[in-house]
Amino acid sequence: MTGRTDTTDVLVLGGAGVDTVIPVPELPLPYADSYMIDSGIRTRAGQTGDFVALGLAALGLRTHHLDLLGDDPEGDLVRALHREHGIALTALPQPAGTKRAVNLVGPDGRRLSLYDTSRAHPDDRFPEARLRELAAASRHVHVTITQPCAHALPVLRGTGVPLSTDLHDWDGENPYHEPFAFTADVVFLSAAALTDPERTVRRIAERGRARTVVATAGAEGALLLADGELTRVPAATPPAPVVDSNGAGDAFAAAFLYGRLSGEPPERCARYGAVAGAHACTVPATRAEAIGRDELLRRASEPGR
């Protein structure tokens, strides 16, 4: 990679969209003909790629986001979010419309997400020349598991730029996730659907390219596999009451990548991730807000936090 001039720290690929957030009295939500939502139903920009990009930018990293967006009100919300936070955005046209979802959020911060899969086509692709250009100008590429990104993996691997991905609530078996898991250099995933998290993270490292795999487990912390060594990472103490877990995994990934690109060892990167994830759980689902660098470094240095 000698002779290159990086203009971007992290290129975030895919995962742009809009969520409609509905606070509900409990999850699972018992059947009823109707519910009165006194706290309001709100629609805001922010899906996994948006939140990773937001987290990276808040930590001072030069961030560029590439995805397909519709010429619709949802797409306008995504564009406005990036303008507001100074995040470079390459928005390719998506005739099917901007991705959208409905999030039901319980009083304890848990959520149930309903994704509108009609706003995508099997032949959705990122133009190869543009993809190569943006990747070549970046120190790192974070790839979401949306469908166009699956087709982008061979092109990205050929650029030689380090890759990361988040498998979210993968069960360790669904074959759709495997190309992402076995192509990336850094793999994040939730342990929520795993019967044996240690076995899964080791399998990812053995079958793929990743030397770093992180399985997050909410209040139970995370499992970090780095260069063959397994470490339990304790959860960080949230700085305020937990109101919504949406975006916690994205915040963890962004802060971990900040540490990695700053030259920190994996254990320190995971500590950053835990602090950022805990912060994200205190942010209401109706807001798009990420922890800043100074606050992250301060909290990560506090003992017992």
Describe the overall structure:
- With 305 residues, the protein is an alpha/beta fold.
- The chain has a single domain (11-28, 38-301), classed as 3-Layer(aba) Sandwich (UDP-N-acetylmuramoyl-L-alanine:D-glutamate ligase), CATH 3.40.1190.20.
- It is 33% helix and 23% strand.
- The protein has helices at residues 48-58, 73-85, 128-136, 147-159, 178-183, 197-207, 248-261, 266-280, 293-301, and strands spanning 8-13, 18-23, 42-45, 63-69, 88-93, 100-105, 111-115, 138-143, 163-166, 186-190, 212-216, 222-226, 229-233.
- The strands form two sheets. A nine-stranded mixed beta sheet has the order 5-4-1-8-9-10-11-12-13, with helices on both faces. It has a four-stranded mixed beta sheet with strand order 3-2-6-7.
- α1 (48-58) packs across α7 (248-261).
- The protein is globular and about 55 Å long.
